[in-house]
């Protein structure tokens, strides 16, 4: 082992990033949920498009129409390719853990990720009483 190559690195505990339920964009920061379309996580561009789409819909159809819009991948913004799936603020070791299925996005679980050369090799779930994700309800 020369210059730490192949050495296992333990990263600080962190919550999982958000993943947009429409386009698949994975990011840290804040997310918006719509009171008319519950239990959906959207990035800002998708939320804005959804609001524009629902603007003239009758009140009794908003939830059904909103869920249908989120599920329809033909709506803009289109689902992202794997190369553009992650925001730059999501570290490579976290991207690796998500891609390998070790970390669930959109959860309140707190993870400690161990990596070798930015590739996740092990994940521990730890107490998250001090770390909470932030969602804004509108």
Distance between the terminal alpha carbons, to the nearest Å?
52 Å
Percent range of helical residues: 10-25%
Structural class: alpha+beta
- SSE order: EEEEEEHHHEEE
How many alpha or pi helices? 3
Overall, the morphology is elongated
Biggest β-sheet strands, sense, barrel? 4 strands, antiparallel
Sequence stretches where pLDDT stays below 50 over 5 or more residues: none
Total DSSP E strands: 9
| Share in β-strands | 25-35%
Q: Report the radius of gyration as a whole number of Å.
A: 18 Å
Report the average pLDDT across residues: 86
**Total domains:** 2
Structure description:
- The longest helix is centred in the middle third of the chain and has 11 residues, at 44-54.
- The chain is of the alpha+beta class and 138 residues long.
- The model has no long low-confidence stretch (mean pLDDT 86).
- It has helices at residues 44-54, 62-71, 92-99; strands at residues 8-10, 14-15, 18-19, 26-27, 31-34, 37-42, 110-116, 119-126, 135-137.
- 21% of the residues lie in helices and 27% in strands.
- It folds into two domains: 1-17 and 90-138, no CATH class; 19-85, no CATH class.
- Strands 1, 2, 7 and 8 form a four-stranded antiparallel β-sheet that branches. Strands 6-5-9 form a three-stranded mixed β-sheet.
- The relative contact order is 0.26.
